[in-house]
Amino acid sequence: MSRPSFFCREHPIYPLHITINVILSTFLAVVAAVTTMIADPSIQGELGLSDTQAIWITTLNLLGVNTIVPTANWFANQFGAHRMYTLGVVIFSLATLLAGLSTNFLMITSARFLEGVGAGFIFPIGLDLIVKSMSKEKVRLAVNLYIGIAFGLGLGLGVPLAGYFAQFHSWRDAFFLMFPLGILASLSCWLARNKKPTINKSTFDYFGFLTFFLFIASLLIALTLGPIRSTDEGWRSPYIILLFGLAIISLISCLLIEKNHPNPLIPLTLFKDPIFSVSLAAMFLLGMATFASVSVSIQYMLEGLSYEKYTTGKIAAVYGATIGLFSIIASYLSKIIPIPILTFTGLSLLIFSYFYNNELSWLTGYSQVVTILLIRGVGIGLSLGPTTILALAGIPPELRSAATTILTFFRQVGGTYGGTLIAIFSIRQTIFHTARFGEQANTQLPAYKMTFKNIYDKFPDAATAKAAIIKNIQTQAYIQGLNDALIVFGYVTGVVALILLITLVIQIVKKRAQNANR
Q: Domain boundary residue among 174, 193, 212?
């Protein structure tokens, strides 16, 4: 098949074409990921899934992403980056069609896992294609556009779109809409391939991959199933303890294998760069903020404020749009403001939004929710792109692809485990606050009698009135538990930001000392 000239690498429009293609594909992968934040109850109801089965819809998707991301660089070197990227988009697109056609638990979980596998190729290889195709002067703008549009607008449009279809049509339509767009992106990227891609043959790190997969899978399943009520004995369950033990053994084995393998799946030499290493921790927390915190906000609006799905989606869209807008603004600010200043400004706003979240209650209006999401979106928009650029600044060109893969992995892992960690903290705190607020429901207290008297006329009988008071206590305890969890991660983000600042200062001092000695 003959190809138009702009599909060739020598054409000046080629970098723009690749960037648009990667942005579109990543955008669709993000939309698919956030669709189930709102549509999960609709999927569960229509397919007749139990609560435990419904958990696997998200868990298997995350497992697919986190398993493939670390191997994407090897596949790209072995078979060509364009080929593997195109394959990822094709797998993802066909999986969205399967998800829309699903009629049972096996079909929907298989589809979601395959979506994760496709996204596992799209995220790291797509970012690497952008970095390699763009000139040094334009790479900052391209990376920030990629983050802003793909992740910001992906969240901003994906959540309300899922809410609209789940409430007024069918959750299946959201997946059907992504299928033709994915096929279009696949065709576009396939045409841009080289007939003879650059191949770097190397042996696959089979044992490293096996131990890494066991670590990711066992930890994810343990953290997912540990907090739920259907797990016998909770965290003390032999099954959960066994999974944690397997995760620890697998991680240690993986590190030992990677240290001695000639072509490791995860090049440990990258971690010798202190800025890169600390930036990975920041990237984990930013991934958690980007995906997990918006999931918490959606739960708060749906369960705490009893908002409709579409209304919740429209409010959450503000968050994604803000990330997108300020990621683009960050690319222009980076020309006049040092990257570290942008990074710490964004992280400071993110931390502030976590603490400000403590002001929310069951009486909160939508304006306060929007304000918090705006502040958090600005913080992520200003820090996510600059942190990526900061982390890659000191990496040699020959390790740049592996570095982008690891950065992508930590961002995805943050989004994966962040929600689970927030849930673990919030469940513990919800139990505490339920007991604390429940003390106020003593039927002998004057305040309780007055409250009961005020609402009694609005309910058909005394039992219903008492149930309303109890439900109110449970709702407020649930909301306060979420707030407490975010405060904890506000402190953690602050500590990581401080360590990153100290690391940067030390590196600057060392560099100046070396220059002075010369």
A: 193
- Residue 188 and residue 282 share a domain: no
What is the reported pLDDT for 1? Answer: 43
What is the distance between the alpha carbons of residues 43 and 31, in angstroms, rounded to a whole number? 16
CA dist., res. 319 & res. 108, Å (int):
28
Please give the helix or strand (H or E) that residue 404 lies within, else none: helix 400-438
Dihedral, CA of residue 427, residue 350, residue 400 and residue 410, to nearest 10? 0
Angle between helices 309-333 and 339-356 (to 10 degrees): 160
Express each pLDDT in 89-100 by its tens digit: 999 999 999 988
> How many C-alpha atoms does 363 have within 13 Å on its Cβ side?
2
Domain boundary among 193, 214, 242: 193
296 is written with which tokens?
């918490």
Q: Which runs of consecutive H residues, i.e. helices, occur in 80-138?
A: 81-101, 105-133
What pLDDT sits at residue 464?
65
Helix, coil or strand: residue 266? coil
Task: Please check whether residue 83 is in contact with residue 92, taking contact to mean a CB–CB distance below 8 angstroms.
Answer: no
- pLDDT tops 90 at residue 10: no
Task: For the chain, give the number of residues.
Answer: 518
CA distance 287 to 280: 10
| 368-371: long-range contacts, CB 8 A cutoff, minimum separation 24 | 369/297, 369/300, 369/301, 369/305, 369/315, 370/315, 370/318
Tens-place pLDDT, residues 153-168: 777 777 788 778 877 7
* Structural domain containing residue 135: 1-193
DSSP state of 204: -
Q: What is the pTM of this model?
A: 0.75
Alpha-carbon distance values, 449 to 437, 453, 464 (Å)? 16, 6, 15
Q: How far apart are CA 97 and CA 242, in angstroms?
A: 36
Q: For residue 20, tell me if it sits in a domain.
A: yes
pLDDT in tens, 293-344: 777 777 778 777 777 777 877 887 888 888 888 888 887 888 788 888 888 8
For the chain, what percentages of helix, strand and coil (3-state, to nearest 5) are there? 85, 0, 15
Could you tell me which of 62, 20, 8 has the C-alpha nearest to residue 37?
A: 62
What is the spatial distance between Cα 92 and Cα 117, in angstroms, rounded to a whole number? 7
For residues 302 and 420, membership in a common domain is answered with yes
The one-letter amino acid at 102: S
Give the total number of structural domains in the chain.
2
